[in-house]
Amino acid sequence: MPAVPRLSGYAGIALGIALLAALAIASLTVGVGRMNLLSLVSGGDADAVRLLVVSRIPRTLAVMLSGAAMGIAAVIMQMLFRNRFVEPTTSGTVEAASLGLVGVAVLAPGLPVAAKMLVAASFSLLATFLFLRLIDRIPARGVLIVPLVGLMLGGVIEASATFIAYRYDLLQSLATWTNGDFSGVLRGRYELLWVGFGLAALAYFTADRFTVAGLGEAFTTNLGLDYRRIVAIGLTIVSMVTAASVVTVGTVPFFGLIVANLVAMAAGDNLRRSLPWIALAGAAFLLACDLAGRLIRYPYEIPVGTVVGVLGSAIFLVIILRREARLG
Amino acid sequence: MADGITVSRTGLSRPAVVLALLACTAVLSAALFMTIGARGDWGFVLAFRATKLAGMALVAIAIAVSTVLFQTLTQNRILSPAIMGFDSLYVAIQTALVFLLGSRQLTSFDPRLRFLFEAVTMVLVALLLFRWLLARHSGNIHVLVLSGVVFGVMFRSLASMLQRVLDPNEFSVLQDLLFAHFNSIETELLGASAIVVAVVSVAAWRMVHALDVLALGRDTAIGLGIEHKRMANTLLLMIAVLVSVSAALVGPVTFFGLLVANLAYGLLGSQKHAHTLPAAALIAVIALTAGQAVLEHVFGMDTALSIIIEFVGGIVFILLLLRGAYR
Predict the structure, then answer these.
(1) Alpha-carbon distance A134 to nearest alpha carbon in chain B (angstroms)
(2) Cα–Cα distance between A52 and B295 in angstroms, integer?
(3) Which residues of chain A does B321 touch, with a Cβ-Cβ cutoff of 8 Å?
(4) Are A149 and B321 in contact (CB under 8 A)?
(5) What domains lie within chain A, and their CATH numbers?
(6) Bridge partners of residue B181, in order along the sequence
(7) Chains A and B: how many Cβ contacts under 8 Å?
């Protein structure tokens, strides 16, 4: 493999932030409502200010927050499972969150959004532990069999969710949770993503522990750390982040996996060093995909889940097949 | 059991008994499907259900035969064309054609012509894509399955993206109009599909011995005089055609083929294609007709069958992975 130039240091980060800022400004200006950023600066136009504050800024923020959080959630999972192909959409975590949401919609539709998110998070956590147990039982554990089991587990959970949704006429709601889409984001409807992002940012402070846990249970215990506790903390963060994004914007297939893999190629596996990069890259990549979805069929929108479904799958395929070509 | 076949006291082999029992059950479930819960004008009910039954039988045979052929070709029990994304590829092709030709143009086409067009494109793309994939990666089954699953996600997203680009307002209408579901089988295509399925099935039947040899592995098969490359191409062609039929009639069903093929191997205790092919087809017919009859008329759930198949199929797939049955 050709050496990838290592982007590190403040210059690289500054460059990344500049790119992200450019994308964010683009995201603020794209939309059906007429709005001129220059006229905003010169003051005046009250409608444009409202449009900006109620719709454009929340949407841009929501995309960046969930992009960063999904990237971080994926990399934590990859460390804990010691597998580069694990992430919330290849482990049943995401599907369990939507199953939880369907359950809430049937049993207690009146719950506030935060409570819904907590239910979804507990479902995700349960499913992720189930996944952990399942892959412990795989006889000859190849690297790729792990995401395969996860994808199938996700399929089974999704089938149960679909069945309940079908019985209770909730298929439309289920569709909004399973296909990521930022077009419904307005002020007051995305704030949970801050919670998800905050939790993901918390991971920065425990980053070294996840890195150590990534070296294995024996090694971790040898260093005097409680392996199980680290795993529990990590998976709780992952579940909460996942639930927050499923509840507000829906699922984006393979997104975190791709961000984490691309960043790992450039910045290595030291979590403390790569986390800021993953957050930046996740935010920028999702913003770019969301922008693409808004521009392809302007003035209509293509959900970001669909855009990433095409682009992300293609990148995922390249990663799998290239890895195989290199090893075999 | 050197040849894997036990002979019972009456002199009948186990596969023969199993096949006979399956055939009886298939006839019974078809009868059940035709008559259960029927009220009113029998002439209408029977005619209405007969078309549906014919469609389901065709789909069942197409899925079962294509899966068994695919598993022999790739020499394992956890792959099926649907898991490898063939079905989604067909849907993507359907959408791409609508995209290129325009929905008005295409809906005014004779559906059989449309089907022919789609099936030919499908065969070409599938041959190119999967020849390449199988040639380069057949050594590692996990790479093969995982990339197949991801291909599936990609094709589905691609289809839904094209559908939205096509007509964002009528997105769901278009989806219903152009794409078939389990309980709204495309009836115009029944005649054409029946011919296609019959031709491919006869071809498969004439190849059963060669298939038995192929199942021994590539090198052994070549040593025994099989033209491996040519046979692999022929099989892929047959599989692509069968998948086109089932996907055109009812849309994608991920796990059904996997389920019926593995059930067939388990029940028969024989690896001979003269047994596994008909057994898988019969099991598929039984599962679809009896399942649909019971769900529709006993539980009143007409579209739930595919959901249940996904649920059970996913669990079986995980179990197969855990038991290491992919070797």
Answers:
(1) 8
(2) 51
(3) 138, 145, 148-149, 152
(4) yes
(5) 9-327 (1.10.3470.10)
(6) B184
(7) 123
Tens-digit pLDDT profile for residues A135-161: 888 876 678 888 988 999 999 999 999
Mutate to test the interface with B, among A135, A138, A141, A156 (most CBs of B within 10 A): A156
- Measure Cα distances from B321 to A245, B21, B67, B141 in Å: 30, 30, 17, 11
Both tokens assigned to A212: 């150590």
**According to CATH, what is the number of the domain B52-322?**
1.10.3470.10
A213, A230 contact by CB (below 8 A): yes
pLDDT digits (tens, 9 = 90+) for B52-106: 899 889 999 999 999 999 999 888 888 889 888 888 898 888 888 877 877 666 6
A322 touches B at CB < 8 Å? no
C-alpha distance from A99 to closest chain B C-alpha (Å): 13
Does position B4 have pLDDT exceeding 80, yes or no? no
Sequence-ordered alpha helix ranges (H) in B207-303: 208-214, 218-223, 228-250, 256-268, 273-293
Q: For B266-300, how does the pLDDT look when each residue is reduced to its tens digit (9 = 90+)?
A: 888 888 999 999 999 999 999 989 988 888 777 77
The ipTM value here is: 0.83
Q: Rounded to an integer, what distance in angstroms lies between the CA atom of residue B57 and that of residue B190?
A: 11
Q: Is A17 exposed, middle or buried (0-12, 13-18, 19+ CB in 10 A)?
A: middle
Judged by average pLDDT, the poorest of A154-163, B3-12, B180-189, B190-199 is B3-12
**pLDDT at residue A168 greater than cutoff 70:** yes
DSSP code, position B217:
-
